[in-house]
Design brief:
The protein starts with a helix and ends in a 5-residue tail after the last helix. The mean pLDDT is 95. The longest helix has 29 residues. By secondary structure, the protein is mainly alpha-helical. Helices cover 69% and strands 0% of the residues.
């Protein structure tokens, strides 16, 4: 199950780099910036929770290494094909703003790239093999990330 491992690694790496190789925060340190940072975190948590509840309502797996038993295209999946991973990226960006640790920004980009290569692309091949034209139609209508 790559995504949870990658998410934890991204947090650990950003934290360690922030401590060992601190870089100046290029952004503002004001109320507006903190509101944006907190907002990213809240939206990330809402996306993840909504996606998990939607998968459970459709009685299909929440685990990234599990086999899908239903093609879920509603709720957050109607806007993004990968709302859980998008939520995790938003949480990483929120942590960047809240801790003023630029390494969380780099970690969010590295996480997005790694999860795309290691999880999303294989998952898309699986979903296309299982759901065929229905999944191809969904892919045409819904973005992978944003």
């Amino acid at each position: 199950p790559w995504p949870p491992v990658l998410f934890v690694l991204a947090i650990a790496a950003a934290w360690a780099l922030g401590r060992g190789v601190p870089l100046d925060w290029p952004g503002l340190d004001d109320t507006g910036a903190r509101v944006v940072g907190i907002g990213f975190g809240i939206i990330g948590v809402i996306l993840i929770a909504s996606a998990i509840l939607t998968l459970r309502r459709h009685k299909t797996t929440v685990m990234p290494h599990g086999k899908s038993s239903a093609l879920v295209t509603g709720a957050p999946y109607g806007y993004f094909r990968n709302p859980i991973y998008l939520g995790e990226v938003l949480i990483l960006l929120s942590l960047a703003e809240l801790t003023k640790n630029i390494w969380f920004v780099a970690a969010s980009a590295a996480f997005a790239l790694a999860v795309t290569v290691l999880q999303i692309l294989p998952e898309e091949r699986h979903l296309e093999a299982v759901f065929g034209e229905s999944y191809r139609d969904y892919k045409r209508l819904t973005r992978r990330w944003i």
